[in-house]
């Protein structure tokens, strides 16, 4: 069976599998894919034009047969010999390669399969005069004769005379040039700009294809975090950014890159139930994990350990929740953490996501560190970690004060403190000395650079764990990553007498509760928390009644029980719908505009459900959604998706079930119908909307229904939240323990003083948080990433290449799209992917509905392109972000990668020949050679047994070797270098000649006098008059050898090598110094692990140095151009 393409009839343009011998076979479909009724196989008739071996293909093997072997991945080879029980296959690379130089390999007979050449397969043969020819396979006859079509000849070639290239990329295009097999320069002019752009993208992204091809906005801290992980061969990390800074995006980049590296990767997600659907949606929409059909991705709940399994990568979100179970007294919870530990240790890669700070969470934090690196922390307990954190507090304090904007006198003082804090660190001493000098000379730029280097060095060496990556909200970050939800809420008036009645009833109960608990600190704390619960549900009379009845059932003093019963009586008459739900719905409808989406948080599920009913009467049933605990997680997820998809006025009504994990940043209005009695819960609530906001997005508005601070405890609590916690202005997510303590203290004060205690509560909360903020900042200062956007920043380089996306769109479209032009890959363009949405189809139609397929072998089309049939893509990132199920055409997209991979394997356009006729040319006919080299550092390429890269290959067994290639790309960005050589193997430097060569290819009679003639089989004879045929190949080879030497000695390449060598040396020295300094401060198992890592980094350093000192040259294309004053004819 072979793949066929129907060219006429009802199935025109469709691909199907059919028998190559129809109609002589027993099949039931003709060559156009149509069913044939009562088909009788035709009698075989020999053809005079066919030179087949008698007897057809048969089962026996003969010399010259094209075969593939499962023993290797080299593709088709020719059977040439037998070695004992094995058969020898010979692999064809280029026509210029001598048969004795072709690679041969003995393979087992059982591994062999015959090759069925697909349509459009490039094939080569020698004509009776020994001249090499090329063409494309059209069909294969019943007798195995192969119908091929070349430029000047078409006919049948027997299999034993036909050659096809093996599966290795073409690295020697001169092999085609020296055989006289030259293509039109137009092909080279189409493919080279595309590959040059791909190399520029690879260079900018440091080999991280996932960054460019993900449908995400690009932000420096997220890109740099992903780069940290992906250039490290040991990929076990804790991503600890503050809430809302994009840990999911960072993890998504890493996951997509790992899938690009290994499409059959096994990934185990362990997630809180409420995040399952969100993760699936993010990974599908932004990172297109559905493209990797061979991968095995398992999403599991973090409360179902029986569903977890070891994998190539394990990702745990909200990892602190499971980590806290490491010290649980509940056997089931302790076993759950033990299962996580087993899974993590059995998996080579681990990503944990948690914004929980180490301070006050030492047990959970240590558990996470032990999952990351069990050998390092095997001997560490929570008390030791706590002591280590306390010891670092002073360092963090000094570190925070180290800012280049300080006046010179203060900055000198800070530098002296820093130097005294790290007496054994030579790098600190050197940087401090240089910084003092720059301060003295008032060189602000140099001072800022040195302070940044000093901060980076200290942060890298003295962080808790070098594989914990944390980004804090800073003023600098806010400038590029704006958060949208921190807006002080406006009061939404709700006229009701219920609030006054509740305030009086709660005040009576407060006095009795205080009398019962006074003198008992534990009882006071419990009473304060009960007070918070009551105030939080005070807008819901039914919930307040329930609270009072449940508390009255406890063993309390008679006076307090009486006060609780009075509350039940006072609110018994209240109608929640009439006093709260309906008036609130009316008030909300008046403040919302026609295209706004509002999220309304309610204190109880019952109120949320009732309010949704009222809102449906005003907004319509299709514009109101619920997210409540009484719905399943799937129902809640559908509500969120529908709410996000709607573009007119809509409301989502939620209870506490939406306060954690959900991403509601797309909404425009946040409304608090009552406030939770816990400040940490309110932080979680606001965090659903307090996320990154794209530039130009509308402003946020926020409302609250709580009452006034002087006549309602809900209003008093709002005042404390606003002025004490500052929660509506800044996130308090990193202060969880202190916020809980301050919350208890605030309600304690309100319990004691009533509404008169609001000022005291505000002052006390502010005092407690200020001290904690300083302690957390001191810890975070040492653990947070110091992201710089300089010339070496991967983000800065990506941003630069992204700014030129339209150029990539144009060169890609010129290469891919048919549009009636000759010489491109003949894809059928749909829509307008260069400026909007569209795509490229591998099955098109010519005028008259005749099918057309690209100039790509059908087998490759089936493997790489047909799975992408009907896909939608764009070169414009903004369209990819705003549309669903859209490919972003960049380095790393499956379609673009498939095109790039084909071009590296294909020979078309790799060796070209042209006669450039210029009537004004004053000189003799001048043949000149062009060579286009990709210059890159390859740390895993071992050219000799003594090369230090050999040791890296050995020590990197079992870890991510592609991390070394990415690191090399970051040190030595790949470049393409073009050189022109004379026929005497000298560099062409004459400006007159170079100017003449600059013009693009133009056929005679088009854009200029004279014109360009491709050197086909007839015209090449004119070139042989200048370079005799017997010297043709050696002349080209001689020029190639000289070109390689020239490229290595060129000033731009030497400068790139020197720059990269300096970077490699500096990076290696920094890494090794940091590891040695960490080793000086550690003992036991951590010291052993650091010595192992130190040895590996020493090997990497030597290999990187060798790789950048002697970069590899990969010849992409070559050509011969004759400059002449005369025109040519065939």
UniProtKB/TrEMBL annotation:
Residues 28-69 are annotated as: Disordered. One of its GO terms (molecular function) is hydrolase activity. Keywords: Hydrolase. PROSITE patterns: HELICASE_ATP_BIND_1, HELICASE_CTER. The keyword Hydrolase applies. Transmembrane segments: none annotated. This is ATP-dependent helicase HepA. Residues 60-69 have a biased composition (Low complexity). Pfam families: Helicase_C (PF00271). Residues 583-743 form the Helicase C-terminal domain. It comes from the Bacteria. Residues 228-375 form the Helicase ATP-binding domain.
């Amino acid at each position: 069976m072979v793949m066929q393409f129907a060219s006429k009839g009802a199935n025109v343009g469709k691909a199907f599998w059919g028998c190559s011998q129809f109609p002589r076979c027993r099949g039931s479909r003709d060559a156009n894919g149509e069913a044939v009724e009562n088909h009788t196989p035709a009698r075989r008739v020999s053809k005079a034009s066919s030179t087949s071996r008698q007897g057809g293909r048969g089962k026996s093997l003969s010399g010259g047969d094209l075969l593939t072997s499962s023993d290797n991945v080299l593709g088709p080879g020719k059977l040439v010999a037998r070695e004992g029980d094995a058969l020898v296959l010979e692999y064809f690379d280029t026509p210029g390669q001598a048969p004795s130089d072709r690679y041969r390999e003995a393979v087992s007979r059982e591994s062999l399969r015959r090759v069925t050449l697909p349509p459009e397969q490039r094939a080569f043969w020698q004509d009776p005069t020994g001249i090499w020819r090329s063409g494309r396979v059209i069909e294969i006859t019943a007798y195995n004769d192969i119908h091929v079509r070349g430029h000047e000849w078409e006919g049948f070639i027997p299999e034993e005379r036909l050659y096809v290239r093996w599966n290795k990329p073409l690295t020697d295009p001169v092999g085609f040039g020296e055989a006289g097999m030259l293509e039109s320069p137009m092909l080279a002019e189409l493919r080279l700009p595309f590959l040059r752009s791909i190399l520029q993208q690879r260079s900018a992204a440091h080999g991280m294809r996932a960054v460019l091809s993900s449908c995400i906005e690009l932000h420096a801290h997220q890109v740099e975090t992903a780069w940290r992980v992906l250039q490290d061969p040991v990929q076990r990390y804790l991503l600890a950014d503050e809430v809302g800074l994009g840990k999911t995006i960072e993890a998504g980049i890493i996951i997509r890159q790992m899938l690009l590296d290994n499409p059959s990767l096994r990934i185990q997600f362990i997630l809180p139930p409420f995040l399952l659907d969100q993760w699936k949606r993010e990974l599908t929409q932004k990172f297109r994990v559905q493209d990797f059909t061979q991968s095995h991705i398992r999403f599991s709940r973090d409360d179902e350990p029986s569903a977890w399994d070891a994998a190539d990568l394990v990702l745990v979100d909200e990892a602190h929740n499971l980590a806290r179970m490491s010290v649980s007294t509940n056997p089931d919870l302790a076993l759950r953490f033990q299962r996580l530990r087993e899974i993590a240790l059995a998996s080579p890669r681990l990503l944990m996501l948690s914004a929980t700070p180490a301070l006050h969470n030492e047990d959970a934090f240590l558990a996470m560190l032990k999952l990351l690196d069990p050998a390092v922390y095997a001997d560490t307990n929570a008390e030791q970690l706590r002591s280590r954190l306390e010891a670092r507090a002073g360092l963090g304090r000094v570190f925070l004060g180290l800012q280049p904007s300080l006046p010179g006198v203060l900055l000198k003082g800070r530098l002296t403190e820093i130097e005294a804090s790290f007496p054994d660190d030579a790098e600190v001493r050197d940087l401090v000395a240089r910084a003092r000098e720059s301060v003295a000379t008032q060189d602000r730029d140099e001072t800022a650079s040195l302070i940044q280097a000093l901060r980076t060095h200290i942060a890298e060496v003295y962080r808790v764990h070098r594989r914990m990556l944390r980004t804090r909200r800073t003023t600098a970050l806010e400038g590029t990553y704006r958060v949208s939800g921190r807006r002080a809420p406006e009061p939404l008036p709700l006229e009701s007498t219920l609030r006054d009645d509740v305030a009086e009833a709660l005040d009576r109960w407060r006095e009795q509760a205080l009398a019962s608990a006074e003198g008992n600190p534990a009882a006071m704390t419990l009473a304060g928390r009960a007070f918070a619960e009551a105030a939080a549900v005070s807008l819901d009379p039914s919930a307040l009644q329930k609270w009072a009845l449940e508390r009255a059932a406890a063993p309390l003093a008679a006076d307090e029980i009486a006060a609780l019963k009075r509350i039940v009586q006072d609110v018994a008459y209240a109608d929640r719908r009439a006093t709260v739900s309906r008036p609130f719905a009316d008030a909300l409808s008046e403040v919302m505009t026609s295209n706004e989406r509002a999220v309304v948080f309610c204190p109880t599920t019952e109120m949320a459900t009732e309010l949704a009913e009222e809102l449906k009467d005003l907004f319509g049933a299709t514009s109101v959604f619920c997210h409540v605990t009484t719905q399943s997680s799937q129902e809640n997820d559908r509500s969120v998706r529908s709410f996000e998809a709607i573009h007119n006025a809509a409301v989502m009504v939620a209870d506490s079930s939406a306060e954690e994990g959900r991403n509601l940043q797309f909404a425009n209005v946040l409304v608090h119908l009552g406030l939770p009695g816990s400040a940490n819960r309110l932080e979680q609530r606001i965090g659903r909307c307090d996320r990154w906001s794209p530039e130009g997005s509308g402003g946020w508005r926020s409302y609250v229904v709580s009452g006034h601070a002087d006549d309602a405890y809900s209003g008093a609590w709002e005042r404390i939240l606003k002025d004490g916690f500052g929660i509506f202005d800044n996130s308090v997510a990193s202060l969880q323990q202190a916020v809980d303590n301050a919350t208890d203290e605030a309600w304690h004060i309100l319990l004691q003083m009533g509404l008169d205690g609001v000022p005291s509560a505000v002052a006390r909360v502010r005092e407690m948080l200020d001290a904690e903020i300083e302690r957390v900042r001191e810890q975070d200062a040492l653990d947070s990433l110091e992201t710089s956007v300089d010339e070496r920043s991967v983000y800065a380089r990506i941003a630069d290449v992204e700014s030129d996306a339209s150029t990539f769109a144009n060169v890609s479209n010129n290469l891919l799209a048919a549009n009636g032009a000759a010489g491109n890959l003949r894809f059928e363009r749909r829509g307008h992917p260069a400026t909007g949405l569209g795509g490229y189809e591998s099955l098109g139609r010519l005028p008259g509905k005749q099918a057309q397929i690209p100039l790509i072998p059908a087998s490759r089309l089936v493997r790489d392109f047909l799975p992408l049939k009907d896909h939608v893509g764009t070169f414009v990132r903004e369209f990819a972000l705003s549309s669903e199920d859209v490919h972003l055409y960049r380095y790393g997209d499956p379609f673009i990668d498939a095109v790039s991979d084909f071009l590296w394997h294909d020979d078309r356009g790799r060796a070209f020949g042209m006669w450039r006729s210029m009537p004004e040319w004053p000189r003799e006919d001048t043949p000149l050679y062009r060579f286009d080299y990709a210059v890159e550092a390859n740390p895993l390429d071992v050219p000799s047994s003594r090369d230090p890269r050999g040791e890296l290959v050995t020590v990197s067994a079992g870890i991510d070797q592609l991390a070394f290639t990415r690191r090399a790309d970051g040190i030595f960005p790949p470049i393409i270098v073009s050189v022109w050589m004379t026929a005497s193997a000298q560099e062409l430097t004459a400006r007159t000649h170079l100017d003449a060569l600059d013009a693009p290819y133009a056929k005679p009679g088009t854009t200029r006098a004279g014109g360009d003639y491709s050197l086909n089989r007839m015209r090449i004879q004119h070139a042989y008059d200048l370079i005799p045929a017997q010297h043709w190949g050696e002349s080209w080879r001689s020029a190639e050898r000289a070109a390689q030497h020239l490229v290595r000695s060129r000033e731009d390449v030497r400068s790139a090598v020197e720059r990269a060598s300096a970077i490699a040396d500096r990076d290696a020295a920094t890494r090794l110094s940091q590891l040695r300094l960490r080793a000086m401060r550690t003992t036991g198992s951590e010291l052993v692990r650091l010595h192992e890592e130190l040895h590996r980094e020493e090997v990497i350093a030597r290999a990187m140095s060798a790789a950048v000192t002697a970069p590899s040259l990969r010849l992409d294309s070559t050509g011969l151009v004759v400059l002449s004053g005369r025109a040519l004819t065939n």
